C-alpha cells in the first residue's frame, strides 16, 4: 500500500456544454465555485494530499486554461495538449502516460469537488490503495450526500469493496466522484483512438479488480449551472 501518491492527471478538456452560458467565454475548469475556479479546487486538494507533479489536458479554450495554470507557483504542472483533437477520458489519460512511471497515480475529473470529514478524502484513498488486489480504486459519494448529480447512482459495492454497475436496477447507492487511483497497466490493450475510461472499468469488474472507497463528506458534481449553485451553497455552509 502507498500512503502518499505524488503524481496525478486532471481531466480538464471537456466542452462543458451543459454549463450553458457559463462556458461561453471560458473553459469549464475556469468556472468559479465559492470564489475559486474548479481547476484550483482540484489542484489544491491534490497538492494538500502530497501530489507534486500534475498533468492537465487542455482542449476547449485551452489557451485560457494554460495561461491560468501558468500563474500557479506549485505544484509542477505539465500540459497534455489536446487542442487539436479531444481524446475522451480514457484516450486522454493514455495520451499522457509518458508523464508517469509504473507506480500509482490519481486521475481527477475537474468537475467534482467536496467537503471533508476527518482525514482528507485523497489521503484516505491513497492509504487504501492496494495494487496487489486492485486495478483501480474509486472515490464514491453516497447518493444521499451528493449534489448536482444527474442520474440514479453509478455503482453497487460489496463488503470487500468490489464494485458493480447499476445496470438495469432502478438506482444504485453510490456516485463516482471523478477521482480514482490506477497505474499505467490499466491502459494496456486499449485503442489508439479516443475512448472512455468506461472501457477499462468494464474489463476490471468481472475480475473483481475495480474497488471503491466511500467518501465521508458531501460530494458536489459541478456539471451545470444548477450544480454550481448547489456546490456554492454546500461550501458556504461548511
Describe the structure.
The chain has 238 residues and is α/β, with parallel strands linked by helices. The chain is built from six helices and 14 strands. A seven-stranded mixed β-sheet has the order 5-4-1-6-12-8-13, sandwiched between helices. A three-stranded mixed β-sheet has the order 7-14-9. A two-stranded antiparallel ribbon has the order 2-3. The longest helix is centred in the C-terminal third of the chain and has 12 residues, at 225-236. The two termini are 31 Å apart.
Number of strands: 14
Mean pLDDT level: 96
Assign the CATH architecture: Alpha-Beta Complex
Structure annotation, total helices: 6
Q: What is the CATH superfamily classification?
A: Spore Coat Polysaccharide Biosynthesis Protein SpsA, Chain A
The major sheet is characterized as: 7 strands, mixed
Q: What is the overall silhouette? A: globular
The assigned structural class equals alpha/beta
Gap between N and C termini: 31 Å
Q: So what's the CATH class? A: Alpha Beta
Q: Helicity, in percent?
A: 10-25%
Q: What is the chain-wise order of helices and strands? A: EEEHEHEHEEHEEEEEHEEH
Strand content: 25-35%
What count of domains describes the coordinates? 1
| CATH topology type | Spore Coat Polysaccharide Biosynthesis Protein SpsA, Chain A
Report Rg: 17 Å
Amino acid at each position: 500500500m502507498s500512503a502518499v501518491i505524488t503524481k496525478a492527471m486532471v481531466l480538464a478538456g471537456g466542452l462543458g456544454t451543459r454549463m450553458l452560458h457559463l462556458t461561453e467565454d471560458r473553459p469549464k475548469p475556469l468556472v468559479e465555485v465559492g470564489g475559486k475556479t474548479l481547476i484550483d479546487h482540484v489542484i489544491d486538494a491534490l497538492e494538500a494530499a502530497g501530489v507534486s507533479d500534475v498533468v492537465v489536458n487542455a482542449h476547449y479554450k485551452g489557451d485560457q486554461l494554460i495561461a491560468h495554470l501558468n500563474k500557479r507557483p506549485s505544484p509542477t504542472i505539465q500540459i497534455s495538449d489536446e487542442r487539436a483533437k479531444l481524446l475522451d477520458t480514457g484516450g486522454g489519460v493514455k495520451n499522457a502516460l509518458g508523464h508517469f512511471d509504473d507506480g500509482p497515480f490519481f486521475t481527477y475529473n475537474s468537475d467534482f469537488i467536496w467537503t471533508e470529514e476527518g482525514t482528507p478524502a485523497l489521503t484516505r484513498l491513497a492509504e487504501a490503495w492496494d495494487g496487489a488486489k486492485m486495478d483501480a480504486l474509486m472515490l464514491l459519494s453516497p447518493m444521499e450526500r451528493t449534489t448536482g448529480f444527474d442520474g440514479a447512482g453509478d455503482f453497487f459495492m460489496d463488503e470487500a469493496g468490489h464494485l458493480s454497475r447499476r445496470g438495469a436496477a432502478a438506482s444504485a447507492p453510490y456516485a463516482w466522484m471523478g477521482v480514482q487511483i490506477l497505474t499505467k497497466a490499466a491502459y494496456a490493450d486499449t485503442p489508439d483512438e479516443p475512448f472512455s475510461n468506461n472501457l477499462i472499468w468494464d474489463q476490471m469488474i468481472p475480475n473483481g479488480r475495480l474497488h471503491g472507497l466511500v467518501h465521508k463528506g458531501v460530494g458536489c458534481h459541478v456539471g451545470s449551472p444548477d450544480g454550481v449553485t448547489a456546490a456554492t451553497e454546500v461550501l458556504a455552509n461548511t
